[in-house]
Design goal:
6-stranded mixed β-sheet; VWF_A; 7 helices; disordered N terminus; 6 strands
């Protein structure tokens, strides 16, 4: 007996949306304490908007001046509260030199997204570069080579700069929609977190889940309705047969 098919076929959505995010920002001598603290608040606000968990969004943080400094890698913390606490308590290193941006970008793409640093094979990779004053100390050829390498590692770079976007920002950003100004940290954080989750397919996962649930609900309603109709049909058929039997074989009258 063939099974009754109710509603469209169901495609089950993914259980989670895996995203690996690394924040890289400038702590060189060119950045004032006020701008550095604003950068930290921007990172903190962005993390607060992300779905941080072991099988969701994983976060790593690094910064740079004349050398690259890893603060923590993606498999260190899976708690949003813990990550925000680490960021809020972060102090910049004293007596640092000028920014070596090319080296920092190269090191981040090579190290921070590797499996040894918590990178996941099936995750979508985002590198959020926050450079408050822009970068002017690298040649186009050097930077192009590093950006090309990052792309080969499937790393999408989001560029956040103070004021108008620099040529460096145009070069490193995944595309024009991946460029932001370091204005109000909450506004920037909302835009960046939305970009990360929507472009990684998380919105599609949620939409598929909603459609899947809708299909289940309406399919269940349709099935229940059909079963009730079948029950009514069988009940009416039973009643009609009983009436026909009574008419054909009436009960004999009892003798008094």
């Amino acid at each position: 007996m063939a099974l009754l098919s109710v509603g469209p076929s169901i495609q089950y959505p993914k259980a989670d949306c895996l995203i690996d995010v690394v924040f890289l920002f400038d702590e060189s001598s060119a950045v004032s304490d006020a701008l550095f603290n604003k950068t930290l608040r921007t990172v903190d606000a962005t993390v607060n908007n992300l779905d941080v968990k072991e099988m969701g969004v994983n976060v790593g943080v690094g910064c740079y001046a004349d050398t690259f400094r890893q603060i923590f890698q993606m498999d260190y913390f899976y708690s949003k509260t813990t990550i925000k606490g680490e960021i809020d308590g972060m102090k910049r290193q004293p007596n640092v030199g000028q920014a070596n941006f090319q080296n920092a970008l190269n090191r981040t793409c090579r190290v921070m997204f590797s499996s040894r640093a918590g990178g996941r094979l099936k995750a979508v990779n985002y590198l959020v570069v926050i450079s408050p004053l822009g970068v002017t100390s690298v040649t186009d050829a050097e930077l192009d080579a590093v950006v090309k390498y990052c792309k080969s590692r499937s790393v999408r770079i989001i560029s956040i700069t103070e004021g108008s976007s620099s040529e460096i920002s145009n070069t490193i950003a995944y595309d024009s929609t991946y460029q932001f100004n370091l204005g109000d940290e909450n506004t920037v954080a909302a835009s960046v977190s939305t970009l990360i989750q929507d472009n990684a397919g998380c919105k599609e996962v949620i939409d598929r889940l909603a459609k899947w649930l809708e299909t289940i609900i309406f399919g269940s309603i349709a099935l229940i309705t059909m079963l009730m109709c079948l029950l009514c049909f069988l009940q009416n058929r039973y009643v009609n047969r009983m009436k026909a039997a009574q008419e054909k074989y009436p009960e004999p009258e009892k003798k008094t």
